[in-house]
UniProtKB/TrEMBL annotation, chain A:
This is CBS domain-containing protein. Keywords: Amino-acid biosynthesis, CBS domain, Methionine biosynthesis. Pfam families: CBS, HcyBio. Residues 383-441, 446-502 form the CBS domain.
TrEMBL record, chain B:
This is 4Fe-4S dicluster domain-containing protein. The keyword Zinc does not apply. InterPro entries: 4Fe4S_Fe-S-bd, 4Fe4S_Fe_S_CS, ACT-like_dom_sf, Fe-S_Ferredoxin. Residues 74-103, 104-132 form the 4Fe-4S ferredoxin-type domain. PROSITE patterns: 4FE4S_FER_1, 4FE4S_FER_2. Gene3D superfamilies: 3.30.70.20. Keywords: 4Fe-4S, Electron transport, Iron, Iron-sulfur, Metal-binding, Repeat, Transport.
Length: 502, 132
């Protein structure tokens, strides 16, 4: 049996459509079988409510008198992109206010507007014959704008990597606070309720399909940026009228140490047309797998620490290397449910009809990494290869002489086999002197926990190590822990200075 | 019950040097659990946990020694209008103060809190604060 969309829409219109939320579907299929479920259910509603950085809105402010062609625009001190037309601007959710006295950004402006608050518009211009005005400041409500059209380039990820951190320090990321030594796992996404998980082949989710967007009826524009459905990371570009949105489903957020983002509720109704759709909407949390990625690796390709299902994640803990680690979400499952339930209520009340995609999204497409025409500079490009070092059994006096003679502040300390075992600085030596010379050998005063780098490490990562540890030099070691160079803040300064001049 | 003790180290009984807490334990026989202590050269702050029935006694004795005592009933407070029940606070709290109820609403078991402040910084929605 197959069902036509017309039939489903007719049922929605006369109030007889059977609508269920996606988390109910597996149980229904278990009970009635696929054919039975196809007969019984007309629409499955999905929902997700989480951080979606890639969001924002186009505004048209109307013309002032005398008119102005706004070249730069700020809403509550948050700059919007005005390189569009005279009185249009796009405000991105993650843009932060110019005055940083509190964490505030584009997301907060959007939430304030939806909540009915006034926002200060400030704009500047050079002035032209047709648009003579050079500046304007005014207070606006959402209803004062001609349009406030939300256009989110990348929402509703099919699934998302979970995050953990193998380093010794707490990391502050867009995946929230990650405790040291795999102290926790943070994940995002609603599992079985997530829109794209319920139609991984993009058969009924595509351009032109009506959706729930932050409390308003919105629409799928097409594939989202970075759409990578071939690897399970499809995304959607969506749009909706901000004037109809509700604060309950549009909430500004601040990720500590990272920045501003926007939590949005997105839901997609899925018409149950055939048994293939029955099967895909019967997906369970147990079937949806994702990787727990180590955000402690500061590279694009980060190692996976474990492969887990959304059922594992939602249980509150996962296993990593035989240890149980607590897991918690960044997105709200309760919010996702509220989205799916409200969407269901709309359909049952005949407030929304369904449509099939006017253009299909590519279910096999994969996102590419950036083509880099110049390789990011490596430590080996700028490190100092003339390393003055010392062995751990030398007397402190010898170290002091060496530091003085070579005008260096850091001496890597080697053991009998030439491997790096510590580091001493002029500061350590002076401290030893003040201590009445009771300490005799280098090994008595050296720092044993050396922060180091490798020749192929990107310079930016080495620079971050210096900054985070508040130190001024890093020994560069090869795979056998032999010192092949030293990288100092001065070497870095040369590089960055050179870059800026160009 | 949790009591937050604050004192100046310039007072007569300097808990940095004088064993104020130990003295109260000895005198009253009440077992005191020290959950957190921040003491610098000028002042100090200590969070202790005592059985509810003995709290008044411990409090009186500490105050006599010049320590100011505040009862921390809701050490960490959640603003329900701001909280969206995401759960970002759950896995980072060392005391397992937070959990979800069966309806995926955040549950806060504030008595266990030791005021480390982690959740307050980690909440993306600014929904958590320390009781003033
Ligand atoms: S992190 Fe904040 S918003 Fe999220 S559940 Fe905890 S208190 Fe609520
Ligand atoms: S302050 Fe610390 S102990 Fe208290 S609830 Fe927050 S994270 Fe837990």
């Amino acid at each position: 049996m197959e069902k036509s969309l017309d039939l489903i829409n007719a049922r929605i219109r006369d109030g007889s459509a059977r609508v269920v939320t996606a988390d109910e579907m597996p149980g229904i299929v278990d009970e009635l079988g696929e054919e039975g479920a196809l007969e019984e259910v007309d629409v499955v509603t999905t929902g997700t409510f989480g951080a979606m950085c890639s969001s924002g809105a186009f505004f048209n402010f109307g013309h002032a008198d005398p008119p102005i062609r706004m070249e730069r625009v700020w809403l509550n001190d948050v700059e919007a992109y005005a390189g569009i037309a005279a009185v249009d601007a796009y405000l991105g959710a993650t843009q932060e206010a110019d005055t940083k006295d509190r964490p505030y950004g584009g997301a907060h402006v959007l939430e304030d507007l939806v909540a009915g608050g006034t926002v200060e518009l400030r704009a500047t211009s050079r002035g032209t014959d047709c648009y003579p005005r050079r500046g304007i400041t005014t207070e606006l409500l959402l209803e004062d704008m001609n349009q406030a059209i939300m256009v989110n380039p990348r929402n509703s990820y099919q699934r998302y990597n979970a995050a953990t951190n193998t380093t010794d320090r707490t990391l502050h990321t867009y995946m929230g606070t990650l405790l040291p030594r795999c102290g926790n796992v943070s994940y995002s996404g609603a599992g079985t309720l997530s829109p794209l998980v319920n139609d991984p082949g993009f058969r009924v989710i595509g351009s032109g399909v009506p959706i729930f967007l932050a409390g308003a009826e919105g629409m799928i524009v097409g594939e989202g940026t970075q759409h990578s459905a071939g690897g399970g990371f499809g995304t959607l570009m969506v749009t909706g009228d901000m004037k109809r949105m509700r604060q309950e489903f549009l909430r500004a957020a601040v990720m500590n140490g990272y920045g501003v983002t926007l939590y949005i509720g997105v839901g997609v109704p899925i018409p149950v047309l055939d048994t293939r759709i029955v099967r895909s909407t019967a997906v369970r949390d147990e079937d949806i797998m994702t990787e727990v990625i180590d955000y402690g690796t500061p590279r694009r390709d980060r190692p996976s620490m474990a492969r887990v299902s959304y059922a594992d994640l939602k249980s509150g803990s996962v296993e990593i290397g035989g240890e149980t680690v607590r897991a918690s979400s960044l997105s709200s499952y309760r919010g996702a449910r509220a989205v799916a339930q409200e969407l269901k209520a709309w359909l049952e009340a005949g407030k929304m009809e369904l449509a099939l995609p006017t253009r299909r999204l590519d279910p096999a497409k994969r996102a590419k990494p950036m083509r880099e025409t110049a390789v990011a500079p490596r430590v080996s490009d700028i490190m100092n290869r003339q390393v003055i070092s010392i062995t751990e059994d030398e007397e402190i006096r010898v170290a002091a002489k060496r530091l003085l003679k070579d005008e260096t502040n850091h001496l890597p300390v080697l053991d009998g086999n030439g491997a790096l075992v510590g580091i001493i600085t002029t500061y350590d030596v002076s401290k030893a002197v003040v201590n009445d010379g009771r300490l005799k050998q280098v090994k008595d005063i050296m720092t044993r926990k050396v922060i180091k780098t490798t020749p192929d490490e990107p310079v930016d990562i080495a620079a971050q190590k210096l900054e985070q540890n508040n130190i001024s030099a890093l020994p560069v070691v090869d795979a056998t822990n032999r010192v092949v160079g030293i990288l100092s803040a001065i070497d870095l300064g040369k590089l960055f200075g050179g870059r800026r001049r160009r | 019950m949790k009591l937050l003790l604050t004192f100046s180290r310039k007072g007569q009984y300097d808990p940095g040097r004088e064993p104020v807490i130990a003295r109260v334990v000895k005198e009253t026989g009440v077992l005191i659990n020290v959950e957190k202590a921040n003491i610098d050269s000028m002042a100090g702050e200590v969070l202790i946990d005592v059985p509810d029935a003995d709290a008044a006694l411990v409090r009186r004795r500490l105050e006599e020694m010049g320590v100011s005592v505040r009862v921390m009933e809701n050490a960490v407070a959640r603003d329900e209008a701001e909280c969206i029940d995401c759960g970002a606070c759950i896995s980072i709290c060392p005391q397992e103060v937070f959990s979800f109820d069966p309806g995926w609403r955040l549950r806060v078991n504030a008595e266990r809190c030791v005021l480390c402040g982690r959740c307050i910084r980690a909440c993306p929605h600014g929904a958590l604060s320390q009781q003033e």
